[in-house]
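Write out the 3D structure for:
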Amino acid sequence: MRIVRLAAAAVVLTAAAMGMPLASAQPNPTARVGVTVADATLQGYRFEQLQISSADGQRHYRVHLAVPRAAPPAQGFPVAYLLDGNAALMELDAELLQDLAARTHPPVLALIAHDNDLRIDGAARTLDYTPRRSPGQAEEFDVMNAQRRSGGADAFLDVIENQVKPAVAGKVAVDPARQMLWGHSYGGVFVLHALATRPTVFSNYVAVDPSLWWAEGFIVDELAKHAGQLAKPATLLLIQGGPADGKPVERRGPHAARGAGNAQAAAQLDAALHAIGGLEVERQRLPGLSHGQTLGAAIAPALRSLAD
């Protein structure tokens, strides 16, 4: 594995990864989508919406699909699948889409949201984005909120792999060799879980401020458990926020010991990634941004990396 373009000399993970999340990092539970760039007429992109349900009919999603107006290249368009699709849509602007449309490989954007108008559906994303910690247990609940079910990541991966991806491919010519999965916070945990357990489903994985503290560092242990040579090469882009001066933030609480702001946790993550053969890792820093702010700020660099 090669580590390229290290944006900061030291590995400093995010505020969310350093223990109990900051209050300012929490999404506004009452925010709704409203008017977005999808409602505008753009020269470079057009929007449509797909409705997707899980095979058991218990989970329902809407996919905001942004398709380049240009003719597809011979190999098809690359595709970026973004979690928290409503929140991601609210962060998109016409300037970014016009920039992507003018690039060599403009990507199709598939913004996967739960089927409502909430910016972020906290309970639904907790279930969908977190792995099952004890496979033999009938039902699990989140470590941060005992009222929220957790452990549905594999079922949600099935939805993306078996329903969302074919639905997108049925609408537009896509390049199966250039498929990106993007997620923030708990969504970043989901991205790393997908990398650990289904590394051939996507070619590019983007984890933005992943909540590495979750379940006492479960996802880092899972990456280490699945170390080995990938069946085909893949890339992982870690986009991380944090203080502008680059200094670690002191954290207290039950998750502080596994907080990635300390050298031990950073070394554990690096060791787990280094043990995955065929994985290229890139790190980008977003200094001065809070955990919540990194969601919007990390969309453009991820999409541009896929478009070039």
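The mean pLDDT is 87.
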